[in-house]
Amino acid sequence: MKLAEGLLLRADLMKKIEHLQHRIRPVLIVSDDKKPQEDPDKILAQLRKTIQDLESLVIRINKTNNETSIDGEGTLMEALAKRDALKMLSERLRNIRYAAQVDNSGDANLKTTIDIKKLQSEIDQTGRAFREIDSKIQEKNWLTELKD
User: Fold this and answer.
1) Quick one: 3 exposed, middle or buried, by C-beta within 10 A (0-12, 13-18, 19+)?
2) Alpha carbon 4 to chain centroid distance?
3) What NCBIfam families does UniProt report for this protein, alphabetically (predicted)?
4) What DSSP string describes the chain?
């Protein structure tokens, strides 16, 4: 299985766990004269099994991320951390730019305390770096076999 397929399976397992959690709620308590629509023990068994499957898969994904290199970026795990940091920086810089522009609208006595053009340039550069590293990660995900 490719790493990208493992990541998709991880998302599916997480959705299944959430679904099982929702399925069990209505059958936990019933009136004395009623029988639950589903057997809560069977749902619990499915939940336990799905969580065990998720645990095994996450271990394989993490092992693969730690042992797979990306040219110029270190390991896949390091590239993922860098991508997350770039995304966070980009979002925060956009929020700052927006706040500096919105808070100064309408009052002639107010001025921006930061260089908006310089900030925009950094936003553009950060976005470009994010897209470049994300492309490398996605490519590696589809080319790399998931480790056992």
Assistant:
1) buried
2) 13
3) DIP1984_fam
4) -BHHHHHHHHHHHHHHHHHHHHHHGGGSS--TT---SS-HHHHHHHHHHHHHHHHHHHHHHHHHHHH-EETTTEEHHHHHHHHHHHHHHHHHHHHHHHHHHHTTSS-TT---SS-HHHHHHHHHHHHHHHHHHHHHHHHHHHHSBPP-
Cα separation, 53 vs 44, whole angstroms:
14
Residue whose structure tokens are 């310089």 = 118
User: For residue range 79-91, what is the model confidence (pLDDT) as tens digits?
Assistant: 999 999 999 999 9
Question: What are 82-132's pLDDT values in tens digits?
Answer: 999 999 999 999 999 998 876 555 666 777 889 999 999 999 999 999 999
CB distance 7 to 61 below 8 Å: yes
What is the pairing mode between strands 69-70 and 74-75? Answer: antiparallel
Kindly report the number of other CB atoms within 10 A of residue 28's CB atom: 9
Confirm if 14 and 57 have CB atoms less than 8 A apart.
Answer: no
Average pLDDT over residues 49-56: 98
